[in-house]
Amino acid sequence: MALDRHPTVLRTCLITEIVNKMKCCISFWTFLLLCLLQFSAVTSDITDGNAEHLKREHSLIKPYQGVGTGQSSQWDFWGSTLVTSQYVRLTSDERSKQGSIWNTVPCFLKDWEMHVQFKVHGAGKKNLHGDGFAIWYTKERLHPGPVFGNQDHFVGLAVFVDTFRNDLHGMDRSFPYISAMVNNGTLPYDHGKDGRSTELGGCSVEIRNKDHDTYLAIRYSKGRLTIMVDVDDKNEWKECIDIGGVRLPTGYYFGASAATGDLSDNHDIISMKMYQLMVEHTPEEDNVDWTKIEPSVSLLRSPKDNIDDPTGNFRSTPLTGWKVFLLLLCALLGIVVCAVVGAVVFQKRQERNKRFY
Ligand SMILES: [Ca+2]
C-alpha cells in the first residue's frame, strides 16, 4: 500500500516522476525548437526564380529589346549608360561618369523579389576603384544626382553596393559593402561616412573582377526586407540584410544607377528579374491604399549603436518577432535543464543518504 511506503521511497518516486515529466518537457521543447528552426529555414529561402511569377514588365533581360526606344519602352536610360546585347553598362571604367536605367512601369505588387545579376570590373588595383552602384525602388525616376548617380533625399528604398571606402574611420568593415536605406525624402545620404548613419544593415562582400556570375536579391514581403547575395559561384543565396518593420508603398519605380569619381570601374547590369511573391494578406491590409504608404522603418532602438547618430536612424539589425521568441525559448530551455540537473543531484543525494541510514 502506498501509505505504508517509507517516506524516502515516496519522495524518490515523486522526484523520478518529476524528472520524467521534465525529460518529456525537454523533448517537447526541443521538438518545438527544431520545428521552428526548420520553419525559419524554409521562410528564409529565397525564391529560385519561378518563371510563372516573373513579371516581364518590371524585368530587364537580354538582349534588352525595346530599352529606351519609343513610347512603349519599359526601360529608360540616362547618362553614361551603354546598352549592348550582353550587358547594360551604367559606367565604363573611366573617371567622373554617371549612368542609370529605369523601369518606366510603376510596380503595384505588394510582395516582390528582384534578382539582379551584375558585374563590377576594372583595371584598378585593390582600393583604387569606385564608387559602386545602387538598386532603387523609388517614387521618382530619372533624377540624376550625387548618390551613385541618382538624386539625394530620394523617397523609397535604395540598396547600395559601395566599392570605395570614403570613411577612413570606419575600418571595422571591409569594402565592397552592401547596405540598404529607406528614405521619406528627409534624409541625406552621407558619402563621407559611406551612408553609415542612415543604413538599415549591411555586409561586406567580395564582388569585383569575378570570373563567375554575381547576383543580389532584394525581397520585400509583409513589411520584411531581405537582401541576399550569390557571389561565390556556389549557386546559393547568403543572407546580407534581413529586417522587419519596413513600410514601402506600391506604385514606385525600379532602377539602377552607378557613378565613378577620381577612381572608376565598369558597372554592368546583366539582368534585373522581378518575381511576384504569392502572399496572402488580411482584409485589413488589403483595404489600405498601398500607394499612400510613406516609406518608413520601425526598428528596436539600440542606444549603443546610435550614440553619435544625430539623424535618429538605426543601423543595427533589430530583433524580430521570432528571434525574440527563440531567445525566450532558449532561456526557458536553460532553466528547465538547470532544474532537471538540480533534481537529479537532489535525487542522488537522497539515495546516498538512504544508504547511510
Ligand atoms: Ca563609398
From TrEMBL:
Gene3D superfamilies: 2.60.120.200. GO terms for cellular component: COPII-coated ER to Golgi transport vesicle; endoplasmic reticulum membrane; endoplasmic reticulum-Golgi intermediate compartment; Golgi membrane. Keywords: Disulfide bond, Glycoprotein, Golgi apparatus, Lectin, Membrane, Metal-binding, Signal, Transmembrane, Transmembrane helix. Residues 52-277 form the L-type lectin-like domain. It is a single-pass type I membrane protein; Single-pass membrane protein. InterPro entries: ConA-like_dom_sf, Intracellular_Lectin-GPT, Lectin_leg, VIP36_lectin. Its main location: membrane. PROSITE patterns: L_LECTIN_LIKE (PS51328). GO terms for biological process: endoplasmic reticulum to Golgi vesicle-mediated transport. GO terms for molecular function: D-mannose binding; metal ion binding. The chain crosses the membrane at residues 324-346. It is found in: Endomembrane system; Golgi apparatus membrane. It holds the Pfam family Lectin_leg-like. The keyword Nucleus does not apply. This is Vesicular integral-membrane protein VIP36.
